[in-house]
Amino acid sequence: MSATQPGPILRNRKITGMSAVLLPFAADHSVDWPAFDAHVERTMEAGLVPAVNMDTGYVNLLDDATRNEVLDRTKRLTAGKMFVAGAYLSDQPGANYNQDVYVRRMNEIEAANGVPVIFQSYGLTEQSDEGITKAYQNLSKECDRFIGFELGTVFLPFGKIYSLDVYRELMNLPNCIGAKHSSLRRDLEWQRLALRNEVRPDFMVLTGNDLAIDMVMYGSDYLLGLSSYCPDLFGVRDRMWAAGDSNFYQLNDILQYLGFFGFRTPVAAYKHTCAQFLHLRGMLNSNLTHPDALKRPDTDLPILEAIVEQLAEYV
Ligand SMILES: N[C@@H](CC=O)C(=O)O
Predict the structure, then answer these.
(1) Residue 173, H or E segment
(2) Could you tell me if 298 and 273 are in contact, meaning their C-beta atoms sit under 8 angstroms apart?
(3) Calpha distance 17→296 (Å, rounded)
(4) Among residues 50, 111, 46, 55, which one has the least CA distance to residue 88?
(5) CB 143 within 8 A of CB 110
(6) Mutational test site, ligand 1, from 52, 160, 182, max ligand atoms within 8 Å of CB
(7) Domain limits, the chain
(8) Per residue in 41-55, pLDDT tens?
(9) Relative to the CA of 155, which ligand 1 atom is closest?
(10) Would the CB of 210 count as within 6 Å of ligand 1?
(11) Is 182 touching ligand 1 by the criterion CB < 6 Å?
(12) Which InterPro entries match (predicted)?
C-alpha cells in the first residue's frame, strides 16, 4: 500500500483561522444571547473569523427564528468584517437534491454580509460525482463567494468525503474560496493540499481535523470546532507560527491533548465539552449544551480543569 506523504513544512506562514462559534445555553434551556455575543467578539479579538450556524452552533437543531437571530447578531457584531455561516438544509436519506432551499439559505447569509459554507445534505451527497459537481456549479452562480464542506459521517450521517475529481471541480469555481475538509484523516488532506498547490494556490484547504490541528504546518488553514474552546489561545498559537516562535509546538501539543479529549467517541458530544471548558474558564454562565444534544459526564470536569491550568502560562 502506498501511503500519501506530507508536503514540506511551511514556516512563518500567516494562518487563516476560522472558528465555529459555540451557541451557549442558559439554565432554562434558552439560548444565552449575551454569552453568544461575547463569544463572537472573543473570536474576532483573537484574530479568527467567526463561523456561525455550524455544527458547533447546533445548526441541525435550530428553528428558523433562532438561525436568523444568530445571523442578525453576527452581522451587527462583525460590522463589515468577514464572517462565514453554515447554509444548512434538513432532509432524509433518498431525498432529491434541493437547490431552492440552498439558495434561500445562501441569500439569508449574504443579506447578513456573511459568506455561506455549503453544508452537505443527503440530496446533495447521494448523487453521482457529475451530479454533485453540477450542483456546486449551479450554486456558485447564486452567490458572490462561498466555501465548500466535506464532512465525515462521524460528525453527521449525510456527510461525504468527495473524490479528488469533485474536489478539483470545486477549485475550478472562481468564487469558491476554499473548502473545509473534515475526514479526520491526514492523508486525504495532504492529497488535497498537493492538488491545491498544483491547481489553485489561493484556494483555502480549511482543515476540520480536530485530531491533527498541526495540519496548518503543511499549508492548511482551518475551520475548527476545537478553536471555539479557546479562540484566544488559537490566536496566540497562530501568531507564534507566523513569527517562527518555537513555543508554537508546546502550545499546539496541549491544545491537541484538549482536542483528543473533547473529540473522543461519541464525537458529537464535543460541543458539551466546549461548554464545560468555557464555563471552567469563566467565559460562559453555564456549561449546558443544547437540550437535544449528546452530553458528557461531570467526571470530565477535573480533567478539563487540569488542562486549563496547563494552558494558563499562554493566556
Ligand atoms: N465541523 C464542525 C466543527 C468541528 O470541527 C462544525 O461544523 O462546527
Answers:
(1) none
(2) no
(3) 27
(4) 55
(5) yes
(6) 182
(7) 17-243
(8) 999 999 999 999 999
(9) 1
(10) yes
(11) yes
(12) Aldolase_TIM, DapA-like
Query: Which residue type, as a one-letter code, is found at position 170?
Result: L
Global pTM value: 0.96
Report whether pLDDT(1) > 50. Answer: no
Rounded to the nearest whole angstrom, what is the distance from the C-alpha of residue 152 to the centroid of ligand 1? 11
If you measure from the C-alpha of residue 85 to the centroid of ligand 1, how many angstroms do you get, rounded to a whole number? Answer: 11
The verdict on the CB of residue 18 being under 6 Å from ligand 1 is no
The 8 Å CB, 24+ separation contacts for 237-240 are 238/14, 238/15, 238/17, 238/47, 239/47
What does pLDDT average to over the chain? 97
Find the 198 Cα to ligand 1 centroid distance in Å.
Answer: 27
ipTM higher than the 0.90 cut = yes
Q: Taking the domain 17-243, which CATH number applies?
A: 3.20.20.70
pLDDT at 155 over 90: no
Q: Convert the pLDDT of each residue in 170-224 to its tens digit.
A: 999 999 999 999 999 999 999 999 999 999 999 999 999 999 999 999 999 999 9
